[in-house]
Specification:
Layout (H helix, E strand, L loop, with lengths): L2 E5 L4 H17 L2 E8 L12 H27 L4 E8 L2 H12 L3 E5 L5 H6 L3 H8 L4 E4 L10 E5 L7 H14 L2 E8 L7 H14 L5 E7 L3 H9 L5 E7 L4 H7 L2 H8 L4 E5 L3
Parallel strand pairs: 1-2, 1-4, 2-3, 4-5, 6-7, 6-9, 7-8, 9-10
Antiparallel strand pairs: 5-10
Helix pairs in contact: 3-5, 5-10, 8-10
Length: 277
Amino acid sequence: MKKILVPCDFSNSAVQAFRFACEMASISKGEVFVLNVIELPSLHGSLLVPIQVYENAFLKEIKTKSHKNFEKIKEKWGGKVKIHFSVEHGSVTEGIRKFVAKKRVDLVVMGTHGASGLKEFTVGSNTEKIVRSTQVPVIAIKKSVNVSSLKNIIFPTNLNATNKNLVSYIKALQSFFKARLHILYVNVPSIFVPDHSTEKRLIEFARQYQFKNCSIHIYNDIDEESGIINFAAKFKNKIIAMATHGRKGINHLMSGSIAEDVVNHSDCPIWTLSDKQ
């Protein structure tokens, strides 16, 4: 967590993500990269006034405004953290992915408004798209939260083969927050398993991966997403940490991802990592 990227459109949730990232960087002695990606509107040129004239004028105005907004949040929340600011134009999700690779970012902290209804199935939030496709961990932030207050990590698992890289990240996250780990299995009607059987598997799971300062939980609900959110509601000062399948295209529409659904519908911070790592 030495190089933290905050994609920022200066909305309230993005500013909260910036605050969160600065606090994390202060603890880890890392640095924060703030990236403002400008998506240019579609313009149709004419013989008299070329499109490029409009684009250049628009970009100059937006970049000036972005720098002013950045200086305001840096002065208010930046503290003594080393912070870099960049303005780019193009696709937001593609811009973020390229920036992660270019700067070798090891964590993305994004504000999110979530998405619901038809929009969730056809477009989704930018945060959801990054969660689905980026190759580094992502923390999604909706509202103000202090890093130092997070003392409970909710870690949902289906007890299938677990990526060892994910386990290493979870242990590092637990160490960073000095938090208690709650290993969660959500039992749903469609694939119901008796609790006594699941409990044995959870105990073996915790033992196999040598988790410390942890507890195991079985929660019954109508589906996995509801179970994770409803279980997490029992705790204060929590963050949910889980893998995402990173599905794309029609496969995403048909199957979805529980992690992306939780990002859209939960108010607490959500840490995710693609299981393709």
